[in-house]
Amino acid sequence: MLQKHNLTACPLFMRLNAEVIDELIENTIVEKKIYSKGDLIVKQGSSIDYLYLLVDGKVSTEMITSEGNIINIDILEAVVPLAIAFTYAAMPRFPVAVVAMQPTEIYLLSKEKFLRQMMNNEVLFRNFLRITTSFTVFLSAKVAMLSTKSLKSKVALYILNNTTQQQPHFTPKHNQTQLAEYLGVQRPSLARTLGELISDGAIVTQNRKITVLDRRYLEKLVF
Question: What pLDDT was estimated at residue 1?
C-alpha cells in the first residue's frame, strides 16, 4: 500500500488546508509511480502529458547539450511540481531529463482537471503564478552562471544567488561533486576556487555551510 504524503509544504499548495489539498488530489490524480535510485523518470524532450508532482524523494534535473555534455540544472526534493512552467505551454515538453537520486514517488495529475481547479481557486492560481515566475528568475540566474567565463565568478554568483545581506550563510543542497557538475566544471577546480575565496577573505566554510564575509568582493567578481 502506497504511503499517504503530507502535501501542505508544497509551494503549489501554500495557504491551502490539508482537507482542500486531499480533495484536489483526489479529483485530479491519474496515477502514482514509484522509482528506484538511478531510474530515469522522464527523458529530455518528452511530452508533458500530466502535471508531475514529486511527493517523496529527491531528483536531479539534467540537460544534454548538442555536444553531448550533461549539465546539472538543479536538485529537487519533495514536495514540488516538476517542470510546471512548461506544463501548459503550446507544445509542452520537458526541457531536462529527470533522474531519481533516491527512492522516489511521483503523482501524475490530469492537466485539464487541475486547470479547472485553478480556475475555481484563486489561492491555487496565485501559487501557480508565483512558482512559474520564480522558475523564470532561477532560469535567468542559471543562464547567467553558465555564460560567465571565469570559474571564480561562477562560484561567486552561485554563492550570491543563495545568500542575502540579511542572511549571509547557506548550506548547499549539492555535495561538492554535484556542485561541480551543476557549474559545469571539474571537482578539483571547484575545490581550488573555493579555497581561493576563503584565502581572499570573501567566505568561510564550516562542514558544508558557506558564510559570506565580504559580499562586495564577490559582487566585483561577477558584475
Answer: 38
**130-150 mean pLDDT:** 75
| Buried b / exposed e along 85-100 (16+ C-beta atoms within 10 A) | bbbeeeeeebebbbbb
Cell numbers for 36 = 528506484
Instruction: Kindly report, residue by residue over 73-84, the tens digit of the pLDDT.
Output: 888 999 999 999
Spatial distance between the Cα atoms of 64 and 44, rounded to a whole number of angstroms:
8
Structural element, H or E, at residue 21? helix 18-28
Three-class DSSP category at 100? strand
Q: Please report which confidence band the pLDDT of residue 5 belongs to, taking 50, 70 and 90 as the band edges.
A: confident
Among candidates 97, 95, 54, which has minimal Cα distance to 77? 54
Contact 29, 109 (CB under 8 A): yes
Residue 59: exposure state from Cβ atoms within 10 A (0-12, 13-18, ≥19): buried
Residue pair 170/210 in contact by the 8 Å Cβ criterion? yes
Helix, strand and coil content of the chain, in percent to the nearest 5, comes to 40, 25, 30
With 0-12 CB in 10 A as exposed, 13-18 as middle and 19+ as buried, what is 51?
Answer: buried
- Residue whose C-alpha is closest to residue 113's, from 36, 51, 40, 180: 51
